[in-house]
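Pipeline run #58 for the internal structure catalog. This entry was flagged by the ingest filter as a single-chain record with no existing model, so it goes straight to prediction. Upstream metadata was stripped on purpose; only the residue string is passed forward. Reviewer on rotation: M.T. Logging verbosity set to normal.
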Amino acid sequence: MTCQSSDSSEAIQDEGRADDGAAAAESDERRIAAAMKDLRNTGWYWGSLTANEAKEILADASEGTFLLRDSSQREYLFTISAMTSAGPTNLRIEFKHGKFKLDSVVLVKPKLKQFDSVVHLVEHYVQLSRGSDRAAPAQPQRAAAAAGAAAAPNGTVQLLLTKPVYVATPPLQHLCRIAINRTTRRVQALPIPNRLKDYLTDYAYNV
């Protein structure tokens, strides 16, 4: 039997925690890198666009038009800028513990869904918006996507995400890929060449 000093034991524990932290950081880096790859394929990711620039782009857009950009706040990675009936608004996306979710007030946060991908997050709320029947606005200060509404200074307005603003006209192939993904998730069962299946699965979203 051998004995180990408390100093040595603490050092081993500290080393284990450091290894866990390094593994978590590496996993987060992979998740963010994969998210960036998906975003670059969307055509509606605008990168380092400012809030004022996003507001100008959305100025004449219809309600439900949106784009995604880098957040101007350090604690957040991305921001959704969208047009509502009361004008353009911004909704931040936070990344924590390897998951993406919308930012909101503390009481609502536990109710918000978490996603492995930013595009999956946007896709989810686009589907909710397209499938909604313009439900009644939620109470003030509730999460926009959790309740289908965003708080305005004098009350609430409904926040819809239905139509992305593209940086440039996307290729016809990409638009076809989105249309196919809206129709089926069973790409491998389609009677098409494998290279086309690879192209479809490289962006498996319908927005």
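catalog note: The first strand starts at residue 65 and ends at 70.
catalog note: The CA atoms of residues 51 and 81 lie 8 Å apart.
status: ready for reviewer M.T.
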